[in-house]
Amino acid sequence: MRAGVFLAVIGAALASPLQARDAINWNRINLDAERAVIAQFQAQDQRLQDVAWKLVRGNAEFCEGAVPSIGLQLQDTASYGSPAVARAALGLTGDFAVQTSAKGSPADITGALPTNREITLIDQTAPSTLKAGRRFYWERLAKVHDLIDASLGASGSVSFTFADGSSARVEPVDVCPSRFELMGDGQKAVADGNRVVIGVEFPAFRYDEPEFAALVSHELAHNLLGHTAWLDRNGRRRSHTRLTEREADRLIPWLLANAGYDPESAVRFFRNLRPASGSLLFFRGTHPKWRERAASVEGEIAFIKQLIARDGKADWRTHFRREIDPAAGL
Predict the structure, then answer these.
(1) Are residues 268 and 307 in the same domain?
(2) What is the pTM of this model?
């Protein structure tokens, strides 16, 4: 999966004891507490990546520009408040280790890439030797994920060498093109055309998996339908944003169905969250009321079920009704 993580904010956002000072008083560092904070963040990130993998893998044949992916995320201690404390807490000699391997992905299936396993080489590149800032430096992690993507696209596989000297080569499968990031604070969920970013405090993390998947599907739909680029070209007037939000809502049950979830979960998501226009991820007036949103989703489900009964899949690339022309104006 083309995935990266905003670990740059994990220390402050999760009230971590990670220290941002240059001089470290090791007598005051509780490494068990550090590990607990990191593990809490990783557990939420694992949930996001597991759901995201089902969505991008299950819908790959309908996405434009599907990309090869192995479902792996890394972590870079340079993106923590104190890289030295993070290395000590995780038992690393270098800076890079596994963050998550999405369940069912090639990275997971290998069994060689469990969380926190230290990585010393990616193909022939030693990622810890790449230039990085002193702390809170997330840019290097993004570059290393780009490096993995480039290797998968060029050679059809990527190899990893671990701190114990062993290695593993992983071959990808095609997925929809989007990265998924867990943001260390806040209740927002946003999509920017390439990424889906969800705050650790978003209420849907408390929901059952299918309803949580509906949230992720909504943001993924924005990326797959080209909404960011369309709004950039046509302006972000309230009426334009409402069009894109309605389209994203209507695509949710299609994405869910192809990922193996009950498409009715989209309706339950809106009934659980009950977002008023202007709350959480919604700006006032840009989103219809939750009852309207649930109703628009319900309007798609009967057709989706007919397609699945007939074809075994919900081909939204062929059958989904667009409300905008993503390549043009209104």
Answers:
(1) yes
(2) 0.89
pLDDT per residue as tens digits for the range 88-103: 999 999 999 999 999 9
> With b meaning 16 or more CB within 10 Å and e meaning fewer, what string describes 148-182?
bbebbeeeeebebbbeeeeebebebeebbbbbbbb
Asked if 277 and 292 touch (Cβ cutoff 8 Å), the reply is: no
Element (H, E) at 191: strand 189-191
Q: Which residues pair with 142 in a beta bridge?
A: none
Residue 296 CA to residue 254 CA, distance in Å, equals 13
Residue 179's SS3 state is strand
Give the percent of the chain with pLDDT over 90.
Answer: 79
Say if residue 96 is in the same domain as residue 168: yes
171 shares a domain with 233: no
Q: What is the rounded CA–CA span in Å between residue 268 and residue 212?
A: 10
Residues 147 and 222 in one domain: no
User: pLDDT value at position 120?
Assistant: 98
CA dihedral 121, 126, 127, 130 (to 10 degrees): -170
Instruction: State the angle between helix axes of 227-234 and 209-224 in degrees (0 to 180), rounded to the nearest 10.
Output: 50
**Is residue 15 in a domain?**
yes
Domain range spanning residue 171? Answer: 7-175
- Confidence at 47, pLDDT banded by 50, 70, 90: very high
- pLDDT above 70: residue 20: no
Classify residue 187: in a domain, yes or no: no
User: What per-residue confidence (pLDDT) applies to 3?
Assistant: 38
- Pair (33, 161) in one structural domain: yes
Q: Is 286 domain-assigned?
A: yes
20 contacts 82 by C-beta, under 8 angstroms: yes
Q: Let me know whether 132 and 217 are in one domain.
A: no
CA distances 227 to 164, 231, 247, Å, are 45, 6, 9
Q: Which two structure tokens, joined as six digits, stand for 124?
A: 């022939």
Tokens describing residue 329? 């104006």
Check residues 258 and 294 and name the one with the higher pLDDT.
258
Other C-beta atoms within 10 Å of 193: how many?
A: 16
pLDDT tens digit sequence for 164-181: 999 999 999 999 999 999
